Amino acid sequence: MLSLEPTWPAFAIHDVAQHTKYPLPQPRSVSEAELRPFITSFAEGRLAPYYKSEPVPAANDGNVFELVSKQFNSVAFDTSKDVLVLFHAPWCIHCKRMAAAYEALGAAMKQHTNLVVARMDGTANDVPSHDAALQVSGYPTVVLVRAIDNRVISYSGNRSLQSLTDFLRLHATHSLGASDAPQVEVEHVQSAYDVISNRDLGFSPKEARHIEL
Predict the structure, then answer these.
(1) Preceding omega of 25 cis (within 30 degrees of 0)
(2) pLDDT tens digits for 22-77?
(3) Is the peptide bond before 140 cis (omega within 30 degrees of 0)?
(4) What DSSP designation does 21 have?
(5) pTM passes above 0.90
(6) Of 52, 19, 22, 27, which Cα lies nearest the Cα of 37?
(7) Which residues contact 5 (CB under 8 A, 6 or more apart)?
(8) I need a surface site. Which of 43, 84, 132, 202 has the fewest CB within 10 A?
(9) Which residues have a catalytic role annotated?
């Protein structure tokens, strides 16, 4: 959570209100000589927050854009594009169950230059934003960052390609057109999973800027 290596003692400042963290670089000693200037820099607003990130991919021309923290703001908050982001975890079984449908969604929407279908490994990348609507508390979490106003809309439908497509058609700023309706479902979902609540999927709690289906 605080991006600390399991080497103790360790020290970090967590600004809960701003969703930022400031770990004392390791292996610097947790001593008065190190902590005093570190805390002073934070109090004076001179300390930059730390965001864990994977390297920016050398190539990113697949159906789904592989997003990392270092490029999150430039991609997600591009006001010329609607950006759908799936926050996932490698160990999350629900993420694996929706992977095929999400990949197919990316393929179906590839033709739209003003829409980005992206995913980000939330265990390897922090979200470099103060926006409470983007603070992920469970996986998978799917959000749409709309073009123009960058309003964040959360997804709470099922894992089907049809449902994801309908969500984009309903909420994206740029029109997708009826021709983008999927012809074949990628994954047959058992009835027990046809409709999944935010609690079941681990979606983030509702925030003021979220719009639920």
Answers:
(1) no
(2) 889 888 889 999 999 999 999 999 999 999 999 999 999 999 999 999 999 999 99
(3) yes
(4) E
(5) no
(6) 22
(7) 26
(8) 43
(9) 92, 95
